Amino acid sequence: MRSELKRRLDAADAALAFVNVGPGDARHRSLVEGVAAERLSTEQAVLYTVDQHGLRIDSRRAPAVRSFDDYLIPGTFVLRNRLVDELHPDGIDDAELLSLLERQISRLRIVELEIRPVRGHFDYEHLKQVHRRMFGDIFFWAGEERVGPETAMIRFAPDAANHAPGDPAAPMTKYSYFSGPEIAEAASVQCAQLSHLASRSDLGRNRFFDLVAEHGGELNVVHPFRDGNLRALWQYAAQLEEQAGYPIDTAGFLKETRAHSVAMHAAFHFQATNDNDVMFHLMDGGLPQAQTARTLPPG
């Protein structure tokens, strides 16, 4: 059970490393370990986390999201959320507190997903269910396709095409993601390709990881959700790879590891160059040693 407990904790910590978050303080860690050991239900841990800040989770019907601006609390740059109190009946507007709770709660839910994963066929609906379970306590729109913007969504990150992972000299550069109207078809196509891979037994390891890197990289460029894409995609891909017989050693991707830095770089490198080589070698190197030594058909 100790090794299984560590696996659950490592999986959640590796996912949170994608948003540059460490293991958390002692109180939070105690809750996470309690859920991982199944001494405490995830619901209890989530409610305790929220209650610590005098908040509760709003169970009212989700407000409509018709445009990209509808994701924000009016007059702020804070995402609408389900964490409320008497002064904030439509969601807290403290960005720092929301970020803290969103990361703490999603870590608890990722541990739960390791214990009771989504059962599905790795299609687009499967990915949506992963996202919904991960973020449903926090956002009304969890598991729902991103609405807008009508043109490409722009984000800025270090230049991954011309600089190595972690290079402090890398300038910030622009990365484009799919517009809202393009998401449904594009995400469905990429998830269908990944779903097909999960059931194939005729691919060697190299070809399998090459295709996962390609379609996973494309799915990240689609960015189907308003927030939480990397964590949801990580969880989805890790489950897919395990089902296909290639379980990833998530301990190798914790925040203090070089693999974590390379993983962040790999997504942007693919986006900038359409070259999945960095992503391929990252995943190939993430297999446990016993798994890499397994005899497989040539790929």
UniProtKB/TrEMBL annotation:
Keywords from the named record: ATP-binding, Nucleotide-binding, Nucleotidyltransferase, Transferase
Keyword presence, Calcium: no
PANTHER family: PROTEIN ADENYLYLTRANSFERASE FIC-RELATED
InterPro entries for this protein: Fido, Fido-like_dom_sf
Molecular function GO labels: AMPylase activity; ATP binding
Pfam families associated with the record: Fic
Catalytic activity field: L-threonyl-[protein] + ATP = 3-O-(5'-adenylyl)-L-threonyl-[protein] + diphosphate; L-tyrosyl-[protein] + ATP = O-(5'-adenylyl)-L-tyrosyl-[protein] + diphosphate
BP terms from Gene Ontology: regulation of cell division
Domain of life: Bacteria
EC number annotated for this UniProt entry: 2.7.7.108
Lineage: Bacteria, Bacillati, Actinomycetota, Actinomycetes, Micrococcales
Parts forming coiled coils: none
Protein name per UniProt: protein adenylyltransferase
Organism: Subtercola boreus
Sequence ranges assigned to domain Fido in this UniProt record: 122-284
